[in-house]
Write a structure and sequence with these properties.
The longest helix is centred in the C-terminal third of the chain and has 29 residues. The chain is built from seven helices and two strands, in the order H-E-E-H-H-H-H-H-H. It has a two-stranded antiparallel sheet with strand order 1-2. It is 68% helix and 2% strand. It is globular and about 45 Å long.
Amino acid sequence: MEKNVALIALFAALIAALGLIPKLTLGFGVPITAQSLGVMLCGTILGSKRGAMSVLLLLLLVAVGLPLLSGGRGGLGLFVSPSAGFLIGWPVAAFVTGMIVEKWRGHSLAVVAGVASVIGGILVMYVFGIAGLSIALEKSLLEATGLVAAFVPGDVIKAVIAGMLTAALAKARPASVLSVT
């Protein structure tokens, strides 16, 4: 039990630490950050439930005002900003990513974690992000999808990194990748 709580807190801190990498804010108010890599790693390493709880912990801390998102952002206002859909989608993305890694066997962990990161950490997250962007900016879903296209190349790179890091960690310390144990 204590180990789970510590890991959930550790991965929430990892996502926050990835926010220290300078953000690049696009013209429509949504930043490109490394924090979505942390969301992917929550799922690939911790698994579905612990991964989602780690992201929820981070979002709770952000909601109470801690400046844990890229650029030192925090507070309830973020949950009605153009980024809101992505933030709301983060725990779902971590859960789906983790569930895929937990269930899919027979391929290398790097491939499974990478594909899971694409499905959960990109596709699922984009569903929420596009919907939130559409609402916040009063754009059609098609227009919001066009805006989000700018994120695709970087997020694919993050998914590959998540797959490689998960596989490397599993090789170095097999018991530490809870999504496959």
